[in-house]
Amino acid sequence: MRPVVGASRCPTSEHVRSAQRFDVPTLVAHGDDDRIVPIGAGPKSAKLIRDATLKVYPGSPHGLVGAHEDEFNTGLPALITS
């Protein structure tokens, strides 16, 4: 598994082209309390990426830190095998 390209408030055409080139199953993880990247960017990214799964973490800030990090790590194996 490798990290995904970060989202942006105003994605450039290069961000869009890059996302559309992904050719592996991809998890788009987004906290709904992210104050850096608006929550609307998660679904937009998931739509651009073929075979993407969107997972929104309620109450999580940008970076899914702290307890949210544990939730992400605990749920990741199930998402990988699904």
Q: What is the secondary structure topology, with strand pairs?
A:
Elements lengths: L12 H8 L5 E6 L9 H8 L3 E6 L9 H15 L1
Parallel strand pairs: 1-2
Features:
alpha+beta; flat; 82 residues; disordered N terminus
How would you describe this protein?
The chain has 82 residues and is an alpha+beta fold. It has three helices and two strands. The chain has helices at residues 13-20, 41-48, 67-81, and strands at residues 26-31, 52-57. The protein has a two-stranded parallel ribbon with strand order 1-2. The longest helix has 15 residues, at 67-81. The radius of gyration is 12 Å and the shape is flat.
Largest sheet: 2 strands, parallel
Query: Alpha-carbon distance between the termini?
Result: 15 Å
Low-confidence stretches: 1-5
Shape: flat
Could you give the order of the helices and strands? Answer: HEHEH
Structural class designation:
alpha+beta
Radius of gyration: 12 Å
Number of helices: 3
Strand proportion: 5-15%
The pLDDT mean sits at: 82
* Strand order in space, largest sheet: 1-2
Total count of strands: 2
Helix content: 25-40%
